[in-house]
Design brief:
By secondary structure, the chain is α+β, with helices and mostly antiparallel strands. The protein has 5 helices and 9 strands, in the order E-E-E-E-E-E-E-H-E-E-H-H-H-H. The strands form 3 sheets. A 4-stranded antiparallel beta sheet has the order 1-2-3-4. Helix 4 (about 155-160) crosses helix 5.
């Protein structure tokens, strides 16, 4: 026999509940100017944000607040996020907000978990292999050569490549493109 869905009040949000299955419901009426609390519950739809996490809009103090559903589940069933922790989805699926799929973890535990289940590659791509790279390996070599042979200063190199002086400084010091 399947376990009954358990509902708990969303802390700090009057008229809202969240379930251990990751669903959110409200007692607020949906009618325009006569909006108020009713005796009937209705499930609120969720939408994924740009990262794939399910979000829900809650109303309070005359304004709408968007919240992560997984955060509401953990807050209602486990308690506030401990300092230095975040929420980990055990199966790696951001849309799965069931209580049994969520846990608090440190950022490093969360990252190790993501690597272990194949969500992240480790080590991260470096240098020109990184998706945010501004330079090819050949350009980095040229920048370092210009700098070490003192043919150009960092400001002149930055102008040549159309980037900030600090970007060139990080490359020549080895902090970037190591």
């Amino acid at each position: 026999m399947a376990k009954r869905e358990e509902w708990r009040d969303v802390p700090g949000s009057v008229g809202y509940q969240v379930s251990d299955r990751g669903r959110v419901r409200s007692r607020w009426s949906t009618g325009g100017a006569h909006r108020g609390l009713t005796d009937e519950w209705h499930i609120i739809g969720t939408n994924p944000n740009q990262y794939g996490y399910r979000k829900v809009a809650l109303c309070g103090n005359g304004r709408q607040i968007r919240k992560n559903v997984h955060g509401l589940v953990m807050l209602a069933f486990v308690g506030p996020v401990p300092a230095g922790h975040e929420i980990n989805h055990k199966d790696g699926k951001k849309a799965n907000c069931r209580l049994g799929n969520l846990e608090y973890a440190t950022p490093s535990q969360n990252m190790r978990h993501a690597v272990r289940i194949g969500l992240r590659n480790f080590p991260s791509p470096k240098g020109s292999q990184c998706h945010q790279a501004k330079f090819t390996d050949k350009q980095v070599a040229e920048i370092r050569k210009l700098h070490t042979e003192r043919k150009m200063g960092t400001t002149a190199i930055a102008r040549k490549f159309g980037v900030a002086h600090s970007t060139i400084s990080r490359i020549t010091s080895g902090k970037r493109y190591a």
